Amino acid sequence: MDPHKIIANKVPPLRQLYHKWRSLRNVPFRKKFFIGYDLDGNTFWEFRNYNDPARMRRIVEYRIPNLNYVDYKIPPQWVQWLRHNRPTSPTLEELLADFQRQQQLKGLVQQAEERWKSIPLKDWSKEEQKTTEQKAQPAFQQPTRFTGKRDDYQPEGWTPSAAKPRHDQQKPDQKDSFQPQGWSPSAAKSRQNEDQDFKPSSWNPANPSKR
């Protein structure tokens, strides 16, 4: 594909001659210079900046002025040139090579999407059902409880002869044999009289109590 043929289909021949004449820099009193095209036929210009003579101003003029500027997509190479990030303007051959690269990339992406669509979809309903069943099952089994009596348990190395008798296992004959005596008023009164008749003995210094 010849890039010049692409421009010929979008820019008339007389217009191209005019642009070539405007690209000449040796014409006196000329302030605006033509730089080049993009693949859509838009033109890029450069003119002198009186506020900064060392830095030229750069603009783009769209092929169809009636359209809004947002309807155009300027190539990134020309955007870099407009922002002075690129010293030289891009050529039509460079723009065409980048355009072909983008088309090839789009074709590869489309092929990858078709391969993905050809793969049968996985039935996620069955997977969700299996997951629900697994969640319904208990994660662990509860340990079995010991149902034997407490007194029947014997740890390893334990002998009945070494065990001490528990209080609740004492025989009736081993209990305390204390039995209180019967209470009577006469016995209580006699004890009270004994307490009243008590008299302390006189103290003797010769016989001190031992400490």
UniProtKB/TrEMBL annotation:
Which cellular components does GO assign to this protein? mitochondrion; respiratory chain complex I
Which GO terms of type biological process are on file? mitochondrial respiratory chain complex I assembly
Residue ranges for the region (Disordered) are 120-211
Query: Which stretches are tagged as biased composition: Polar residues?
Result: 177-190, 199-211
Where in the sequence does UniProt note compositional bias of the Basic and acidic residues kind?
A: 123-133, 165-176
Q: What family does the Swiss-Prot or TrEMBL record give for this protein?
A: Belongs to the complex I NDUFA12 subunit family.
Cross-referenced PANTHER family? ADH DEHYDROGENASE [UBIQUINONE] 1 ALPHA SUBCOMPLEX ASSEMBLY FACTOR 2, NADH DEHYDROGENASE [UBIQUINONE] 1 ALPHA SUBCOMPLEX ASSEMBLY FACTOR 2
Q: What is this protein called?
A: NADH dehydrogenase [ubiquinone] 1 alpha subcomplex subunit
Give the organism the record lists: Trichomonascus ciferrii
